[in-house]
Amino acid sequence: AGRRGMRFGSAFAWSPPDADAGSFANPAYAALLQRDCGILVAENQMKWQALRPSADRFDFAQFDAMLDWAEAHHMAMRGHTLLWHKTQYFPRWLNGYDFGATPRREAERVLDTHIRTVCGRYGTRIGSYDVVNETVDEKTGALRDTSLSRAFGGTEPMLDRAFQTARAAAPHAQLVYNDYMSWEPGNEAHRAGVLRLLEGFRKRGVPVDALGVQSHIEPLGEGTPGQMAARQEKPWRAFLDSVTAMGYDLLITEFDVADQQLPTDFATRDRIVAEYAGIYLDILLGYPQLRDVLAWGMCDKYSWLNGFKPRRDGTGTRVTPYDTRFRPKPLRDMIARKLMKA
Length: 342
Ligand code: G3I
Hints:
InterPro entries: GH, GH10, GH10_dom, TAT_signal. Keywords: Carbohydrate metabolism, Glycosidase, Hydrolase, Polysaccharide degradation, Signal, Xylan degradation. It holds the Pfam family Glyco_hydro_10. About 40% of the residues lie in helices and about 15% in strands. With about 350 residues, the chain is of the alpha/beta class. It has one domain: Alpha-Beta Barrel (TIM Barrel). An eight-stranded parallel beta barrel has the order 1-2-3-4-5-6-8-9, surrounded by four helices. The chain is globular, with a radius of gyration of 20 Å. The mean pLDDT is about 95. Ligand G3I binds near residues 44, 47, 180 and 254.
């Protein structure tokens, strides 16, 4: 990837040194990241829940340790995320926050404080931020609301403010809207909602540079990966064409391939995962606007999908480039091959 002016990388985590986790403190995982990655992102440690235990207090210890480690090993880090706009992922204090007699002003203060504090602390050490994450409802395509957006009097003014504040606080940084509107059937309303949001940003002159295409993909339905892809490719390309026509860059920010519905047999499962991924990557890498590809974890042992979409046969997920014993799988080779071609 590096030779082609692109970057490949992954999410990783913080953990105490003795924990078995997808963390830089785990020597086996650290070695894997150092070997394959040029850019990293904290899986959880830059979220409000992690960074801001109360309205007036920040705790940067874990994220600082991650960034120090990444830099010591010559890897860049992205920032994820300055605002995950979903009640479920707000810290409890924010969901119950009293915005007082002038709610809009107080909401601006709470949001601005967050963005300025984080961006101010890291300066040019972070070159790309998921300023806003997942604000479009996947079922309806409408914008979500939360305690914060209600205090703002609407979600749009809150989103605009987040990007404007980020631009002022980190003028060097790429500002990204990040979401999971995928190419599988069932994502139509979600994609339409994201397009409306991106159009709105352009109309209002909001400083948004790129769309983060999370890329939590999943081979579903009848037939071979090629047949599945053939059913999905046209609307997906139309979506990406519309996004890039508006002048947005693209990133793959959270790549993995769910395998909950696939056969038990490892060889078959790994083959389907790799083939499906290869077709998907070919499409995305065909866009010159895409320079960064990040996996959401490099090792099956630590994937979030173990908890979120567990295998019913108890065999564990095989959704990342390396298996539970840190051995490369066909998915790893497929990604490498596609990046070399891009
Ligand atoms: O740290 C606590 C731990 O102290 C506690 O004992 C344990 C008990 O549940 O929870 C731990 O926190 C969990 C955290 O992951 C760290 O493991 C949270 O409950 C759990 O909700 C959290 O899940 C993360 C999720 O985002 C929500 O923040 C996943 O690891 C992470 O992979 C996932 O990542 C998201 C992206 O940010 C946005 N896009 C989708 C992606 C996958 O859902």
